[in-house]
Amino acid sequence: MRDVPLTAATRRILLIGDSFTEGTGVAFEQSFAGLLHAAGQQRADRIEFLNAGVVSYAPTIYYNKIKHWLDQGLRFDEVIVFSDISDVADEATRNSCLDDQKQLPKNCVPLSAAPAGPPEWRPGDSFNMSIRLFNFFRYQLYWLAGTQDQVLNSNVHSAWTIAGAAVGDSYSPLGIEGGVQRSIDSMQALADLLKSRAVPLTIAVYPQPLQLSLNDRNSRQVTIWQDFCARNCKTFINLFPAFFAFKDAHPDWYPRLFIKGDVHFSEEGNALVYQEVARQVF
After folding, report:
1. pTM for the whole structure
2. What is the pLDDT of residues 96-114, one digit of tens each?
3. What is the 3 state secondary structure string of the chain?
4. Percent of the chain having pLDDT more than 70?
5. Does domain 11-98+115-281 have CATH number 2.60.120.290?
């Protein structure tokens, strides 16, 4: 953590995403955000990377947070959104509670009735964090029991890209398609905001273990944001080919690219993301 002045003399790139961008499970220096920052500082024409990734962020929050920072006077030259596959589930479930609307979905607590808390508090945050902690320990137990397939295939919040996947009510109240549309709408609001400030937008996508395990090479996650970026982005960064190439070359791809018993990137997985993003940024 460091103090960040509102303006800088050098080029600035803002990174935003969820826990994968935040760097869950590794030190900052080994995260792809940390690697980009270090490389940017070593250039003759220095580039400063600001990491705004936070666990469970998704398009609605990407838009609201960036708008807030711009309104506060923070200046940056480009935004790279690392769109996680779980964003659709977040938009379909708890983020539908963030709207300024007269009739909230039944599972929402009106903001006026939410418990007091820090600025990041939103209705349902403590519940969602409990669920994520439960899933983390569940993955660890699967791994210790030697059931790697359960680790790879049990994350229902990344299953929306798999045709026919049994997701139950995990995307309630909006459903998968509602979550997809809400993601696109919020990202469009962000793209329009950045365009009005002459700030280029880049979107990067990457697979989770489920997509690699089930060979989801032509994923909806890719086609949705590739199409979106054709109209709205400076660059679209598709990390799926690099991850699948690694998988094809290494039978032990899961424990190498991901933290054992979890879905987040290991140091090697973060390095792979860094290498591919750096090719298009520097």
Report:
1. 0.85
2. 777 765 445 555 655 444 4
3. CCCCCCCCCCEEEEEECCHHHHCCCCCHHHCHHHHHHHHHHHCCCCEEEEECCCCCCCHHHHHHHHHHHHHHCCCCCEEEEEECCCHHHHHHCHHHHCCCCCCCCCCCCCHHHCCCCCCCCCCCHHHHHHHHHHHHHHHHHHHHCCCHHHHHHCCHHHHHHCCCCCCCCCCCCCHHHHHHHHHHHHHHHHHHHHHHCCCCEEEEECCCHHHHHCCCCCCHHHHHHHHHHHHHCCEEEECHHHHHHHHHHCCCHHHHHECCCCCCECHHHHHHHHHHHHHHHC
4. 80
5. no
